[in-house]
Amino acid sequence: MLKDISCQSAYLSSREHTIQGITPLTERPALLVARGFVLPLLSLLLLSFVFGCGSGGSSLASAAASDPAPATGSTTSSAPPAPPSHFVTEASGATFLPRSDSYCASAITPTTAESRPDNDQANGTVVTPQWVNDSENGYPLWVTKRNQVTGNFTGSTTEILRWAACKWGIDEDLIGADAVQESKWHQSAVSDDCGVPGEASYGILQIKNLDCSGAPIHGGYPQTQQSTALNADWWAAHIRSCYDGDFQGLLYNGQTPAQIAATSGWDDVLWGCVGFHFSGNWNPAQQYVQQVQQILAGKPWLQPGF
Fold first, then answer.
1. Rounded distance, CA 109 to CA 106, Å?
2. pTM, whole model, 2 decimals?
3. Nearest to 85, CA basis, from 109, 59, 50, 67
């Protein structure tokens, strides 16, 4: 937890760099004046080195867990940080998200192993998404994020999940665990099948297109079935949008994510968003969330024979 708190403190101080910079004890006063804009950056780098910021941590919401995050759109980051070895959940409202498709493609370490060879065709497919059946079109902040979902990446199943985690700032182990719960990592998976094409949930993260009455849910079919990257890209964008507070009036029980985090922590907000993907409502304690938490604890995708 010390690691998370220290990283968040550095994160916050970098946003107040002209006032709140941390001065090394060996700095001379005259040099402090001359380098008033440089020292805070050096301090941030020192903290990053000592505490390992950006390399993971015990909390899924490690980039935002120790202090209430700024309101959506209020952070001042202008560029993404250097690629970490493990993609974590970035702060609610982080303005450098989404990272670009090309940035995240270059940040992924190539792998030769493929645990799901049946995904090969979908893993190599890039399609143009269509969202004509999205019941959440009335939430403009979500629509803005959804319109940046491209699925513009090809690779192994592991690489695709990491790419989506990078793009939207969602912990890569969380997307891996939810994909186990939803499909055992099989892009061909179909559930909630009403017997009519399009009236089902599709893909590695089970994006529901229409319900059995033909009413819109999330849309995206058949593209979300054809492309693993598009499926994962959409899921990560949806979780990010929820985490940023884009669904006021639909979720959060009349609060903002920051208000929830102030009393329950940012992990509680994140798990509420995972539950929202499954049930469409706000209940961080629902059974689905507990199942994903158990999967996350075991990380079965790292085990032989997965």
1. 8
2. 0.77
3. 109
